[in-house]
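User: Okay, second chain of the day. Same drill as before: sequence in, structure tokens out.
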Amino acid sequence: MKRRSLLKSGALVLLLGAQHLARGATIVAVRVWPAPDYSRVTIESDRELKAKQFFIGSPPRLAVDIEGIDLNPALKELVAKVAANDPNIAGIRVAQNTPGVVRLVVDLKQAISPQVFTLAPVAAYQHRLVFDLYPTQVRDPLEALITERLKDSGPAKPAADPLGELITQQNQKPGAKGDGGDGKVASAKPANAPQSIATAPATTGANGLNGNKKPSESKVATDAPDKTDRLIIVAIDPGHGGEDPGAIGPGGTREKDVVLRLAHRLRDRINASSINGNTMRAYLTRDADFFVPLHVRVQKAQHVQADLFISIHADAFFTPRPQGASVFALSQGGASSTAARWMAAKENKADLIGGLNVKAKDAQVKRALFDMSTTAQINDSLKLGGAMLGEIGRVGKLHKGKVEQASFAVLKAPDIPSVLVEAAFISNPEEEAKLNSNDYQEQLASALMRGIEGYFSKNPPLARNRTI
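Assistant: Same drill. Structure tokens below.
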């Protein structure tokens, strides 16, 4: 009799357990990451959530039915997490649709292309259900840089075609030539679409060096200080962001925050500078706290046809003793040291933590382009890294006195000299404090800028097409 009672109670426990599995997922956290590129909504739970979504065009909104949960205070927090300045999300509504199914409706400010996917537990995160909301109409970033350049040229009405306006300005300059035969950067001329800022003969190498001319025959014109034949674009890549905090210091400092502040300081210096009369502009792969996949960082730099790519990070180790800054370039073969190999492997895991939708077709295609790096690009990257390392050593300690090499995924743009700067060891309490110091960040940003100028002084930016 007693045994029969135990069996019955055991069956009851199993029954309750099955029901708990079906409808007992616990919401750990909810997060909203707004950005012009896209807005992300993340629901983190202790078990995998299943969801069905459908998009309604007018007015634009995304409805998602989440199975296996009931409405709870954690989900209701999403309503208050939407910022008024979110460029994509107007608001979020949640309600119990049917027993065990919660419906979440995201009201949108514009038409979007949604991606809804799940992420398995990794690092400090448990299961994640992610909604990525991409605007269907995005302003071309290269066009935005050109428009900014035109505004700096003086008061003028907004250009409907900023690229054409810049071409017109060039053709109206006294003595402007379009054939490039005078040894100066060729002025851009209207041509069949797509247009470009400056036209030049076919180029080879990461610096765009013409294989049929000597370097001295293609030097940048310096006879008129106010002359701008084209923009010199430096892509700045603040590491990590959004769901991926990067390394975290003993005092709680997040890598993603300090490198973004440093990137802003470097951006301001680049935008205030010129090289031989050619205006410089900085382009940030992220200008706020959101996740950017590694291959998209490279793609962004390629899209604006950047002359340089500088990825900014803060190092970390298991113990607090290591210190000093490092600069890395790509390696087509093995890493230059065991530490460099370890560092590359750590940084290349950013997509797992940040939350890459690996099922997206564009992600699969673009990541396949990573193996196209060239010897010329690597050689130029080593020159850039050497110039920057020398300047960083003037304001702080160096972890290594030479540019290290490893297979960093974010450095694999085949046509852009690219380096990764580890500004300091955030895991070292003293260096964590320095990274949080405005004075040190100013010194470091100035050092990076001097490194860029030093590189260009020996490797002048040459004419290249900028296609939109």
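The longest strand covers residues 89-98.

User: Thanks, on to the next one.
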